Each structure stands twice: as C-alpha cells, then as structure tokens.
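Extended Data, panel c. Modelled sequence:
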Amino acid sequence: MSKPLSLSNSVRHCRERWQALPDYRKPNNNMRYAIADAALAALAVFFMQSASFLAHQRDMELRKRRNNGRTLFGIEKLPSDNQLRNLLDPVTPDHFQADFDWIVAEMAAAGTLDAFLAYQGTWLVALDGLTYHSSTTVHCANCLQRQDSSGTIHYYHSVITPVIVKPGSPHVLPLPPEFIVPQDGHEKQDCERAAVKRWLAAHHTRNQPYTVTYLGDDLYANQPGCQLIAETYQQYFVFVCKPDSHVALYSELALLDKIGGVTTQTTRHWNGRAAASSTYRFANHVPLRAGAAALLVDWCELTVTNAATGAVLFHNAWVTNHRLAAYNVAEIVQVGRTRWKVENEVSSQ
C-alpha cells in the first residue's frame, strides 16, 4: 500500500506534467511567467475557493516577501488574472484529463478509493450539467447559443461534471468533465445528453474492475441513455423520473395500482425537528416509454410527510435497473437522493 495522497505529492505531479503544456506565446512576448506556474495558480484559486486569491497572494508577497502560492503550490512568480487568461485560454481541457486519472489511481494504490464503494459494492457516479459562463456580448467559437423571447442571443458554456459520491459522506471525487461544445460535422447544437454519451464512451472502461451506478436528474431517464448504460456497458442507473416527461410509464403505474401491482410500505422516524412518515412505493418491469420496444425498468417513489400535520416534506421518484424489493427500496431511494451531492458539493463551488 502506498502513502495516502497529499497536496505536496499532487502539486509535484501537476508541476511535472504541466511543464509540457503548450505555450502559445510568441518568442518575442514577455516570457516572465512559466506555463506551469500559470496552471498551478489557476488550481490554487479553485483549491482555496477564493476569487481574490491571486491579488491577495501578490499583496502578501509585497508585504511579507512570501505567499501561500509559493509555499503550498510551488508557484515561483504569480501572474495577474489577465496574464493567467492569456496563458491558459488557448490550452484545451484534454491536456488535464490524465490528472483526474492519476488522482484515482493514487487513491486506489493507497487503499482509500474503496471507501467510496456504496450499494452492492458499486461506485455511485452522479452526472450533472453545469453552465459556467453566460453573456450577450462575450463569446467564442466554443460557445453554445440560445435566443430569448425578445430576440437577444445568449452565449454560454456548459459542462458535464461527473463525480463519485456516497450516501452519508461529505466528500466527493471529481472525474474528468465533458464539455458541451459545438461538434464538427453536426448541424444541431451539442446538448447534455450527447455529451454524457461521449463521456461514457471515453471513460466507462476506466472504472473496471468496479461496477458503477449512474445517478442523474429526469433529463437522463430516457431510453437511449438507460439502454446504453444497462445493455451496452452492463452497468446500473438510478435516475429521477417525473410524471410529465414519462406519461406512458405513469399510465402503466396507474393501472398496476388498481390491481395491487404497486407495493407500498411506510416507516416512521424523527427528522431532528418532528416525527415524520416515509412512504415508499415501487413496481418492477414497467415500460420507460410507450411502444413495444420500450425498455423495462423498476420504479420507486418516496413521500416524506409530517406525522402530525400530514404536510409533505419531500417527494420524488426514480427509475432504475436495480431490482426493487421491500428489503432494499429504502436503500435505492437513498442512492437516488445522493445525486444532489453533484450540485451541493460541485456546482456551488
């Protein structure tokens, strides 16, 4: 077993790799700042979660002749925000994909990766789309576009941010992102579903020998995506499933409910403020969509109410290819609810 992953080892790895990043400055340009220092400075901003990190470090350097950028990240010369953009904007994201794989490999070697294993020994990989830039004036060749009701064009950048999550754990493990950008040879604009398919094609084999349960919102609960995960990649999914986007499925559930084909069970618990009732409903082998070729999935629902007043505190439903039964429906629901970590621990940062 190797030593646990540390910041110093991570910084050392990044510096070694990032020295080879492409540098698009012309020979006669100011070469004061190394490309590796620029990349480490960008990493430091996200690591410290401070938008003013670089300015603060430069001020600290002037006052104390030392700064956290140098002591923690080994940055010899701190570039300004504008210099940082000029150096890194031309560098494509694929140059950093291997760094995510290195982190996962180091954790596996140290024996800490298994701490993320969840239901039936699977990794729970939460998928979510995130918009990180939007403007009506600032745009580039990689921008997506949308037009509002007044005719104004909005330019934006979006990305899929997969992360390994675990119920009850405050930690998440980011995986390589997939950027939603215009695709060569495609007339239609790129979308979140297409980006997820690209990500699965590129990364699904890297999860071996583990199995994976993919988590996502209602957008992912569509037949092509679910079929790809279940049949092509032989993995699992737990996706949010809403009635308005799955009319055929909920029509089938209504018929099953009339003949007792939907199982219901209720538990009571204290939620920290009041007594609450959790009602689980589930049914197996229901069609995800209309038509004879519909994929059969298992469906479950959770409704949490105040035991005293009957007020609904929480309600949601999911589809999955994990077989549902009375003994595991609560655990599957907990897995489905863990999807929110991709928004709480990732998108908010």
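Residues 35-48 form the longest helix (14 residues). This feature is highlighted in the accompanying rendering.
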